[in-house]
Amino acid sequence: MPSLIYDTLDIILPFEWLNYAFMKNALLAVLLISPLFGLLGTMVVSNKMAFFSDALGHGAFTGIAIGAIFGLMNPVLAAAFFSLLFAVLITIIKEKSRESTDTIIGVFSSLAVALGLVLMSMGGSFNKYSSYLIGDLLSISPGEIGALAIVFATVIIIWAFISKRLLLVSINRSLAASRGIKTLPVEMIFTAIVALIVTVSIQWVGLLIVNSMLVLPAAAARNIARNNRQYTVISILIALISGFWGLIGSYYLNTATGATIVLVSGILFFVSLAFKRVRS
Amino acid sequence: MKEINPSQYKGFACSGLCCTKIEKFGVNIGSNVILEDIDLHIHCGELTAIVGPNGAGKSTLLKAILGDIKHTGKLNYLDEKGERTGNPLIGYVPQHLEFDSGSPVSVLDLFKASLYKGAPLLGRRRKSRNTVLESLSIVNAQHLIDRRLGALSGGELQRVLLALALDPIPDLLLLDEPVSGIDQKGMDLFYKTVSLLREKYDLSIILVSHDLDLVERYADRVILINKTLLIEGNPAEVFSSPQATQVFGQTRFGRGQYDQGEGE
Questions:
Q1: How many whole angstroms separate alpha carbon B219 and alpha carbon B239?
Q2: What's the pTM?
Q3: Smallest CA–CA separation between A222 and chain B, in Å?
């Protein structure tokens, strides 16, 4: 199966940069993960959750630190558990509190990242973990790509069930409530899948920019789209294009892959902004 | 006003005997009594207007009926056969819809998201578009279907929300009139549409209003509240009552609006 996919890639994209197995793996990972970022990003942006999703990344970071310290087999599993807990906690606080939640999220998020850094730097072995800050997409293994494929399918299925409800909640909560939508569970499920994606991808993309991968494609799509379907499709396309060209760019420039991808989507964002200006 | 097409609602008939009973409604927020001891009896095909000064609890009453705010007392809906049917199906048009005007959400998206039940079905796109067009035709707003919500005027948004509240046709329609953002022409059109709908579908309508002129013209019954029910009756009775004089002062029949406040 893996060799079949590799052969297919060789035929479709017979380029020099794709000669290496690690580049093929990275490309497959990008093709799986960037559409998810594009998709989930639309509702992160519509629900004004950009800061919130940033905090989720910090929660995942602490989770990885805890997992590593306690010598768990797979720190990512510990991270997934911790960031889910973190996500549920912040969503509840957000729901209960009537005031602006920015400060509360800020407090929790900086505490989480500080705790993570302290745990990781214990015994002076921080260098081992620095890849979680910057990410290393080129280190992804075929087994991890398989796991990504499962995550991909899971998210798509959940999305199919909640996307319409989530859209109405994002337009107006009381209107959604008046149509019989249970707003808190819907938001909870959404937050949980965002937390899951952020946690899973943090080791390849890096804590510092994982949120940009989520927010930038959707922010760009928002400048162009006139309805929700266009919004979703354009956001996914921008995420895919950025992922593809960012990967190639990082190969030739010898730069960090995640950051290069974000730079490409940053450029696309400004192009979309110019497009919006010209049209209006 | 174009012809309204009721064909899609065949089977919905009310002989005019159905009614909604509100018994001993009260709302407390913290230790503050917002509303107490409200009894209302609303018949099908009737437009009941709720009026009162700022902070009288008008919008709160609607939200309590809607179930959005906790309340004491009972709400009962009785259908035309007089059998208790419990909770009525409620359509609600909020005073204003707070949303991000930059959102790429079209009127069609809003309808699809609101009418959506369960899992997505592919290949029903055309059908759902036609259904939404039919709903919008009730308020003559078919042309707005692909417009972004943020690009609608206040009056247009109001009509779209009305169409949405009427899909499916509710037992009880709750309207919270916007205080601002709609010009007089838009307001007249809105009231005319509501009036027509009431006749066509025999709807029970409860309307919170800030415009006594329009209430006088269109309401069948007026309810004056200020924390509790002060008086009810037809518009002429209520507006000439001493209670109304006390609440609105001598100049209450001045043309135009008497309260421009924020809505409570």
A1: 12
A2: 0.81
A3: 6
